[in-house]
Amino acid sequence: MTDTGKKVVVIGGGFGGLGAACLLSREGYDVTLLEKNEQVGGRASVLEDGRFRWDMGPSWYLMPDVFEQFFELLGERVEDHLKLQRLTPSYRIFFEDGEVMDMTGDLDTDAATFERYEPGAGERLREYLRLSEYQYGIAMRDFVPKNYDSYRDFFSRQTLLEGPKLHVFESMDRYVSRFFKHPKLRKIIQYTLVFLGSSPYATPALYNIMAHVDFNMGVWYPEGGIHEVIRVLARIAKQQGTEIRCRAPVESVLVEKGRVVGVQTAEGIVQADIIVSNADMHHTETQLLEPKYQTYRERYWEKRKLAPSAFIMYLGLDTQLPQLEHHNLYFCDDWRSNFAHIFDRPAYPENPSVYICCPSKTDPTVAPPGQENLFILVPIAPGLEDTTEVRERYADKTLSLVTEKMGIPQLREHIVKQHIFSINDFASRYNSYRGSALGLAHTMRQSAIWRPGNRSKKVRGLYYVGASTNPGVGMPMCLISAQLAYKRVMYGK
Ligand SMILES: Cc1cc2nc3c(=O)[nH]c(=O)nc-3n(C[C@H](O)[C@H](O)[C@H](O)COP(=O)(O)OP(=O)(O)OC[C@H]3O[C@@H](n4cnc5c(N)ncnc54)[C@H](O)[C@@H]3O)c2cc1C
Fold this sequence. Notes:
Guanine Nucleotide Dissociation Inhibitor, domain 2, single chain, Guanine Nucleotide Dissociation Inhibitor, domain 1, binds flavin-adenine dinucleotide, seven-stranded mixed β-sheet, alpha/beta, FAD/NAD(P)-binding domain, five-stranded parallel β-sheet, globular
């Protein structure tokens, strides 16, 4: 490492910000990371209450290859820092008619399950996953780890030749229906889109790479929880020389003659030659920059399609729930109307789909012995009314759904801890636009060249990292975005 003599300020300590800090400080930049909250992690923060501990956001450790590659860039090995376990089953699905099904991540077993619902579906699952694996290879080579500067970067010869052949530009819903007729099977294949904050009716089949990620690569868990990954990144960043300051919200980005010179905080000015903002791009552009320096003004954001927000309950129980696995998904029957309430006709869904994470099934450190920690998440539209009364009503509704439709009647009487996190919290804790949980949805018009780029078009020295920019939402994507921001800073492309 040679000292570049250049000072970098990273705004925000989520996956993208910490990742960029690690890479840049390793390269000899003098990096200071300023995080507004009391801890780093951003959406991947941790909440503790007594002997219960909850990951507040992400809970699925997917695409282990991306983590491995990122650690390699830092001269580290994942296995020296994290104890990963592949979950079996990968997850349990509860259908509205009371049926329960496990997806195991073992292809023979899962194909046999599919076959029971629809003759030939087992073989078609294999075919679907072969195609998905092939597309994953192309995506991870040519599209995902890429800084886009012009349309030519996206419309390569291969995209033009292979895209239509593979039907990747039609909707996921249409694509999946070519393979499976049974509504339950279609739901299982399409649910992975929730990781991207999108609906199967508006997402290009480009993203069916997620099926390969889920079925073939498997669902993993780092001992101690997802926040453990954040702890490791923060430790490496510090070892490389990054100074991390929490409770240090940036109030504005300071610009002179079209170039960044620093940031204003309550404690004073922190000078910078380069700024990498990991705060949501809407926040940085519209709140931290003067209008003349904004590449994307308020009216740009008003026209964007946002990913859902979430109504989340963190519960501590003084008993164990034998009905649950580590990951549990409840799929309501009326899938289309549920998505419409999230994306097209915003309202609290009366009969929502629900996700429950129960990491105490795998990890004894997250709850006292014989007890359970639960994370219950209902995807909802961003920007909905979020008051104490609304929360109480919706918490009651969610618990009723879990007890009655998922068959867990003992739930309510065993709750000893309860915290709710919803739209207003996303907005106030993370400065998230309209309280979206994930940021911009992955529609075709908000992917690749059409997603906001990671370099300001108005201010020299200002870069972006994290879910707002390319490649997009999710921990692995944010680590890739850190590499893309690093390339911009180092090489300009
Ligand atoms: C409920 C939920 C479940 C999820 N599940 C999964 C999952 O299972 N698997 C997966 O891979 N991904 C999941 N995700 C997505 C994933 O967590 C995010 O895409 C990713 O963590 C976002 O990282 P980021 O780099 O964009 O930074 P963020 O996490 O958005 O962090 C940005 C940071 O900037 C800080 N900041 C904002 N404004 C300022 C300011 N003015 N000054 C200083 N600091 C500021 C914020 O406080 C925050 O810490 C989930 C997300 C949520 C919310």
